[in-house]
Amino acid sequence: MVPVLWARVIPWNKEIAVAALESGVDTLWIPDGCLERARELGRVRTACAEGDFREGRDYRVTEMKGKSDEGAILSSPPETIWVVFPCEREVIPLENLVAWRRKILAAARTPEEVTLYRGVLEKGVHGIVLLADDPGRMRALASAARKETEATRLVEAGVTGVSPLGIGDRVCVDTCTLIEGSRGMLVGNSSAGLFLVCAENVPNPYVLPRPFRVNAGGVHLYCRLPGGRTAYLSELASGSEVLLVNEVGEGETATVGRVKVERRPLLQVRAKAPSGAVHSVVLQNAETIRLVGPGGATVSVAKLREGDAVLLAEEAAGRHFGVAVEETIREN
User: Fold this and answer.
1) Number of Cβ atoms within 10 Å of the Cβ of 26
2) Rounded CA gap, 138 and 147, in Å?
3) Is 197 exposed, middle or buried (0-12, 13-18, 19+ CB in 10 A)?
4) What CATH number belongs to 155-324?
5) Where are the domain boundaries for CATH 3.20.20.20 in the chain?
6) 241 and 255 in contact (C-beta within 8 Å)?
7) What is the pTM for the complete model shown?
8) Rounded to an integer, what distance in angstroms lies between the CA atom of residue 261 and that of residue 171?
9) HSE on the CB side for 162, CA within 13 Å?
10) Torsion sign, CA atoms 322, 263, 208, 161
11) Residues 53-60: what's their mean pLDDT?
12) pLDDT digits over 301-324, tens only?
């Protein structure tokens, strides 16, 4: 998951602050007396003497020079937020603090440090403070911090049938992200088998590309969310988050800007996975809807044939409010 992001803009620099805000930073850590300057840029949380977060009251700051610094953090209340300036990218002290569930915001000066701190004990620190001396570097740090590293294992499944279903309600998910290549959403009739449906990002003779859109299928379908959760397509709304995945399973979080539900002709695709299980998905019966196959090749559902290979995420069925559970369940 994307960590809490602060940007330290001390001394004050408007261009760096703007770059931080445009890159999705949660909080600006600014010099005392600069609150109004920050507020002129938009609605933003601030850390300063007169801001939303105040040192000593809401957070503490320390350098990680030795065992005594680690001990000071561990002896404080667990809910205390600590801004930590690690020395020489030291990881072991951070691992100890993360293991004890302390809320650590690690200061990072390079994208490599951002990646390192995000991976501490696989879970990562609570947040990252971005330190940059120019707008371009700030954007690079924020990009590294917001990059979704969630991975999903995809398998090749052989299509066993494509059947028209008549008219039904289908969902177009318009994201706040331009979706390139074979990336798309994972959807399926069952959470046990989620098919990779590509975004509408290629030209065709019928409509202009919509590179922010995934025509995701029937309102009843499961879709994959960040953190391994699922939701029904009917539950998505503006402001929801979905997981976008490419052909090798690399995922990133996208925010939903709009959801369109319209009545359209539907079809069902069934495919057999290497496990022997047969999974299915209900999609709009239209040329612009494409499933992703091995190597990132895509095929329109209008041209899909028995024996074609498509990619899907396979797992044990069973969800309780979107969270995987172990229970006896059968879905057909």
Assistant:
1) 15
2) 14
3) buried
4) 2.170.16
5) 4-146
6) yes
7) 0.63
8) 5
9) 19
10) positive
11) 94
12) 999 999 999 999 998 655 444 455
Whether the bond into 274 is cis, omega within 30 of 0:
no
Q: How many CA atoms lie within 13 A of 325 on its CB side?
A: 9
Amino acid at 224: R
Class assignment of domain 4-146?
A: alpha beta
Measure the CA–CA gap between 3 and 75, rounded to whole angstroms. Answer: 24
Judge whether residue 299 has pLDDT over 80: yes
The CATH 2.170.16 portion of the chain extends over 155-324
* Mean predicted lDDT score pLDDT of the chain: 90
CB atoms within 10 A of CB 331: 15
Residue with tokens 């995420």: 313
Task: Output the CA torsion sign for 308, 309, 310, 313.
Answer: positive
> When comparing pLDDT for 237 and 147, which is higher?
237
pLDDT band at 55 (very low <50, low <70, confident <90, very high): very high
In the block, tokens 């494509």 appear at 162
